[in-house]
Amino acid sequence: MTAAVLTGAGRALPATYSQDAVWDGFFAGHYAGVRAAERIFKGAGVRTRHAVANPVDEDLSSWGTGARMERYLTEALPLGKQAVAGALDAAGLAPGDVGLFAVATCTGYATPGLDIRLASDLGMPLGLQRLLVGHMGCYAALPGLGAVTDFVSARSRPAVLLCCELTSLHVQPAQRDLDQVVAHALFSDAAAAVVVEPGAGRGRRMAGLVARTDSSTADHMTWDVTDLGFRMGLSPRVPDVLARHVGEVVAELLDGAGLRSEDVAGWAVHPGGPRILDVVRDELGLAEMQLAASRRVLAEHGNCSSATVLLVLDELADVDGPVVVLAFGPGLTLYAALLLPV
Length: 342
Hints:
The structure is a single chain. This protein is an alpha+beta fold. The protein is 37% helix and 25% strand. Helix 3 (65-91) crosses helix 4, helix 7 (238-256) crosses helix 8 and helix 9 (292-301) crosses helix 10. The longest helix is centred in the N-terminal third of the chain and has 27 residues, at 65-91.
């Protein structure tokens, strides 16, 4: 099989706002009387985030789902185009070279979707194959990457994966539910893309992919379509479930390549929140500095759902050696990928 190599990355971020400003300007009033709300915002590990709809400027909490989906398409198209164009430019490819274009998103839907509209806008070929990875949540980049690398290996054609998430469009009406407080304290907007090429002599090749779903804990993390946008359910027990599985998932991944944890040069861990990173650190026996890229992305960008782990991976662009990528989400599901330098 031809090696599938990641050769380019691009990103697009909407306007930045500070965690303190959005608390003072909106959520302090939104959650007035919820005693733990300010503590949750202050302890989220986030300093700045990005939003196409900053609640300080416009309150979407009473918008219907239809209006939110219209706004999603309006905002996602330019962000997705910028991220994909940046990734193609970094790889030295033209849109016409792409054989498969995959889009992962859980925050908006339209038909024709981002895949069709962006392929047309960018000038991708009429015979392009497309794939939409929908509603998988924060871990979607890794099954998406698995699909595009399989295509590249089997067909010897380049592929592009775009993760585009606009969580700011799903601010919910004020409730005393702490699940919502946590979600509103963490989530952010971003688009991130990667290019994968067959047999390239530079970059990182996909060397392994492991998945684990604990369906007995499916109710711990949910993302429900409601009449007022998409609503998150988030149990405080999620880190405990992660602790039970992350060690064996990483061991399986590394054993398959004949590697040990000490051989890993970089850890691109999805920063679902500070406790998630603490659990991964403790269960894998990592030093705090090995999670510096994930902590930095959380602090500077927040949790951008599926796009986040690609932002972390981009932070590790200069790392020389094996990189383990970890992401987690509804299911509860864990995904782990191994990237090796070529």
